[in-house]
Amino acid sequence: MSSNSEPDADPQELTGTHRELHDKYCAFLKGSGKDTTLQTRRSCLRQWMVYCQQKGIDPKTAEESDVREFVDQNLHKADTMVGTLLSTVSVFYVWACNRNYCETNPAENVSLDDTDYNHIDPQTSQKVKILQQRGDTDDAVVAISPEDVQKIFEKPGTPAIRNELLLRLLYQTGVRSVELANVRLQDIDFGKRKIRITSAKADPGDENYIRYVYYHENLDFLMREWIEKQRHSYATAEESEYLFLTHQKAQMRPTYISRIVKEQAKEAGVNEPISEDANGNTRWLVTAHTLRHSMASHSANGTHPADPESDGIPVHMLAKILGHRKLDTTMKYVSTDWDQIEKVVQERGPR
Predict the structure, then answer these.
(1) pLDDT tens, 297-325?
(2) How many CB atoms are located within 10 Å of the residue 189 CB?
(3) Which of 21, 19, 13 is nearest to 93 (CA)?
């Protein structure tokens, strides 16, 4: 390579409007809080500006869909970081609108209730409190009863076949909404009822980066109806390799999946508001991640009414299905039922 070659531009280097707004807001922040907090806010804003610059988005006219896409692309990060990113973007636009740099806040109606990470710590205790009052859970596990899950299935909304399949797959497999959104038709082994999942929480090369989940034969009809008959009617079907799509998008977004769960749980009468976030958006009791928690809890404790004699799925196997790196994470779902422990030890303990 010639030594006279011009170096490639750094894709992370902010220019133009993106740099101007970034620098002005950072100057405004200076001296208004702890150094570590300011550093985090600057870093989060920079990530948003870099995203906008790379996508050709003018930050002054960014739309709600841009913010949702930004959140979707960061769902692999730690729970608290996802919340901090969204909060930083929203507060930045409040500042920008007050100074007439922008006319609207594109993050105003974006809620973490629409993502897999609606369970970020500040809201978790309130959710658990409500669930404990109902007797549906214990400790820090957020789950709803099998009966309430069934009520959601019975109110899938429109289109009914697609939505019911989506809802049942979330519950039967325990996948995260971002993982379900990424399922391609080629990932499904219809004969074995097995789906190849690329983990949203692991890095390539990790042992659990690729895992397999399984669905029940009672989904065969929904699968056939959706894939062989209804899916083809969508304008985006020809270009899409994904199991779930919409009329506008060849790949359904994780936020869209969570919204279906939230809305149909409301329709079924099992959802309720629990609090408001910084933008005044309502946080709801039942979201897509609640179905994952519910599957884990019911499977770990053998509490599904369809198989009342079942002892559930062994915890070490359940950990593999859920994609947990540590068994301790899965153990959170196991209730301390001493009557059950006594029964199992007496029946299966050493002789």
Answers:
(1) 888 887 766 665 666 788 899 999 999 88
(2) 12
(3) 21
C-alpha neighbours within 13 Å on the C-beta side of residue 273: 7
Give the C-alpha separation, 127 to 134, whole Å.
Answer: 11
Kindly give the residue spans of alpha helices, DSSP state H, lying in 154-287.
160-173, 177-181, 220-224, 254-267
Q: How far is CA 153 from the centre of its chain?
A: 19
**From the DSSP assignment, how many helices (H) and strands (E) are in the chain?**
14, 5
| DSSP state, residue 189 | E
Give the integer Cα–Cα distance in Å for 117 and 44.
17
How many Å apart are CA 64 and CA 106, to the nearest integer? 4
Per-residue DSSP letter, 158: S
Residues 124, 272, 279, 250: what is their CA dihedral angle, to the nearest 10 degrees? 90
Terminal-residue alpha carbon distance, the chain = 74
Beta bridge partners of 275: 283
- What local confidence, expressed as pLDDT, does residue 307 receive? 62
Element (H, E) at 153: helix 146-153
Non-local (6+) Cβ contacts of 34 within 8 A are: none
Bridge partners for 184 per DSSP: 242
| DSSP element (H, E) containing 318 | helix 315-322
Residue 107 near residue 67 (C-beta atoms within 8 A): yes
One-letter amino acid identity for 175? V
Residue 223 burial (CB count, 10 A): 17
Q: What are phi and psi of 332, to 5 degrees?
A: -60, -25
Going by pLDDT thresholds of 50, 70 and 90, the confidence category of residue 143 is confident
For residue 250, the Cα-to-chain-centroid distance in whole angstroms is 19
In which residue are the tokens 């009822």 written?
Answer: 193
- pLDDT score for 36: 72
Peptide bond into 159 cis (omega under 30): yes
Q: Tell me the pTM.
A: 0.65
Paired strand residues for 213 = 195
Contacts 24+ apart (CB under 8 A), 91-98: 91/278, 92/25, 92/45, 92/48, 95/25, 95/28, 96/21, 96/25, 96/60
